[in-house]
Amino acid sequence: MVLWIVIGVVAVVLVWLVFTYNRLIRLRNESEQGYSSIDIQLKRRADLIPNLVETVKAYAAHERAVFDDVTEARARTLAAGSVGDAVAAEQQMRGALGRLFAVAEAYPQLRASENFQQLQEELSDTEDKIAAARRYYNNVVRRFNTAQQTLPTSLLAGPLGFRPREFFELEDEGDRAPARVEL
Amino acid sequence: MTLQEQIRSNRIRTGVVLLGFAVLALAFVAVVAGAYDPGIAGVVGVVAIVYGLFSWFAAGRMIAAASGAHPVTKAEQPELYRVLENVAIAAGLTKTPDLYMIDDASPNAFAAGRNPEHAYVAVTTGLVALLDERELEGVLAHEVAHIRNRDVRLMSLAAVLVGVIALASDMLMRITIFGGGDRREGGLGAFGAIIGIVAALLAPIGAALLQMALSRRREYLADASAVETTGDAEGLARALAALRDDHRPLQKVTRATAHMYIESPLRDHKGLRSSLGGLFDTHPPLEDRIRVLEQMGGFTVSQA
Questions:
Q1: Which residues on chain A place their C-beta less than 8 Å from a C-beta of chain B?
Q2: Which one of A2, B1, B59, B72 is most buried, by most CB atoms within 10 A?
């Protein structure tokens, strides 16, 4: 009798272990997938930058500091090895692009050029997609981290080598206030 | 119920639907084999299976044809397409669903397809005309949520299986009525006719049951997932309010596809429905859905 109870308890614990482990693995995979989706969009934008810089340079060649800024931010984005690096690079990129477009404001001919308008449009499309990919990533990471921090999963997460992931959050977040969603 | 639990529950439901259908089909074949002969049962069975497989892979196109939806390219609808792309990324889909349009002034939308890789979102021209970009984003996020939650797969499967039952019973009716001289005994012909009629009745009942199996809670869940995706409960709530205040019925809609839309396209057929207390409604009242969204976001949209 006692033996059966012991076997039953062990079986239940084993099943729980397997389910919890699988859930954590799935969340980790999803957050990795989410991060690579951000990465794809960041690279897509990085591909637009040289063209953009050349276009603006053709009208405003002497604004060298701004161009260097953007180019440096681009290099940092491409070299980013962690979420923290990527966030810092993104922060710098936002400031640099803001200054670049502020410069462009002063050149009506540049603003009127079709090439520039098209680049601007593609850039804003990519920014929207970066924002969308970040939202997905942050949602998944929130779920992943919560799972690791709440009982009973937290008993397992540490020993099994799961670590909370960093959010991809920017400082001057102009995003809409997130709604609290209980799924 | 979390999203993962919902997806798992949809997998289980899909399995139950398939199993129930297999049992039904076996019973059907056994009865036919008894009433006619194994040869006819075999022919009916093979035709039904081939038809079922064919329509499973063509389900998306068949639903599009039934609802009058046609694909549009990114070049034709650049803004709408962009919103859909962004919503798909934010929902974590690996592929943006295709975009279909229905030329109809009534605002409505649905999603279809057998899996997230072969899915599309269909919107009416009326929806695009009525809603602003923020509201459209909410509606598209709701449809994308149906795709991600695998609701769409279950619905497509239901539609296909109902079609298979209908085809098999139709064949039996014809065999019974026009049946040639190789029928073994006269008495069985009448018996077969009864079976045929019973089977023909089974198809629409099966359809109604399957639609109800796709519970109305799914709509609330798709709303909640949409808000998680866009971070904007108010946009979706305003879209739903706009749908509530619009009373133009869809031109091309059948009972078979009614359950797929974001808002019931049959809403103006009130008589029977209200007397049954909403038992056969495929959607919860828009008012309730708007209220849930208002609670999430802490705002109110204008009352009707």
A1: 23, 26, 30, 33-34, 37, 41, 125, 128-129, 131-133, 135-136, 139-140, 175-183
A2: B59
With a threshold of 0.85, tell me whether the complex ipTM lies above it: no
Q: Is residue A96 part of a domain?
A: yes
> Does A28 reside within a domain?
no
Tens-place pLDDT, residues B144-154: 999 988 888 87
Helix B217-230 to helix B3-35 angle (10° resolution) is: 140
Classified as helix, coil or strand, A161 is: coil
Mean pLDDT, residues A12-25 taken together? 90
Evaluate whether residue A174 is within a structural domain: no
B143 catalytically annotated: yes
Tokens of B33: 């084999």
The rounded distance, in Å, linking the Cα atoms of A13 and A3 is 15
User: Are the beta carbons of A135 and B296 separated by less than 8 Å?
Assistant: no
pLDDT in the model for residue A74: 93
Global pTM value: 0.77
Query: One of B79, B117, B133, B143 is an active-site residue; which one?
Result: B143
A7, with CB counted inside 10 A (0-12, 13-18, 19+), is exposed
